[in-house]
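Re: that chain you flagged

S.,

Sorry for the slow reply, it's been a week of failed gels. I finally had a moment to sit down with the sequence you sent. For the record, here it is as I used it:
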Amino acid sequence: MIWVEMAPDSNRFQQLKSLAEKLGQAWLENSIIEEPNNSEIPQSREEAYFVQDHMAQFICKDISGWKVGATSAKMRELDGHDDVIPGRIFSPVTFVGPIQKLQINQFPNARVETEFAFRLNEDIPIRDQNWTAADLENKVSMYPAVEIIGNRHQLKSATKAEKSLMTIADNGGGIGFVFGSVFDDWRNLNFRNHNITLQVDDNLPAENFLGDMRCQPIEAVADLVNHLSNRDISLRKGDFVSTGAATVPQPIIKGSFVNADFGIIGKIQLTFV
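Prediction finished late last night. Pasting the structure tokens below so you have them in one place:
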């Protein structure tokens, strides 16, 4: 189980809980915390998920699903992760529909990236046997998605490992999601080489992550389900699951217009006001 057994009155418990509450308060205030004390920075994945879970408890908002990052082996290698990185998708910053007008003050220092996402058509219970992509592909519907990413913290001087663990603690960097319209005919798509045009204003389109930089999306769903099962967390009917960046993240500011063209899968258009 990915969990830390600590006495609530222990010094380490209090240090990590303090970081979780700072991150949670920053989420509620749409702000960024000062650089964490060195003593608060998680030293293991177990501690990082301890912070992430306690941050979610502090925020105390419903969730609409889960995001999962570092979903390809190549991406994990480049970013210094050794497993997928789940994070919660909170309901107040979940938007469903291909055309949205969003308040930029909800998303400080944010960027946008395209993703392939799914929505569960039934509960996925915890079980002894790992779930596979084949087990899940008939239990989901597919959606194009845009993730709004950002950190509620800053680390001016940190090792690659510390940055990785703080990303996990900080909900995997997810601060908002937009899901387009459902797309039914997805099972035969070549996702690893499916081109997406993501453009912000008149800037050049974002580079695509293709080939081994991308996961097979339904396999990422299985990885997420199995990861969460190890934390005694199950997924419910209606939950969204987004499966990692398909394009290089692009910065946004007030007034930005985002056009995400997924080809036959659909389009998403966002205006930040």
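What I noticed first: The mean pLDDT is 93.

Talk soon,
D.
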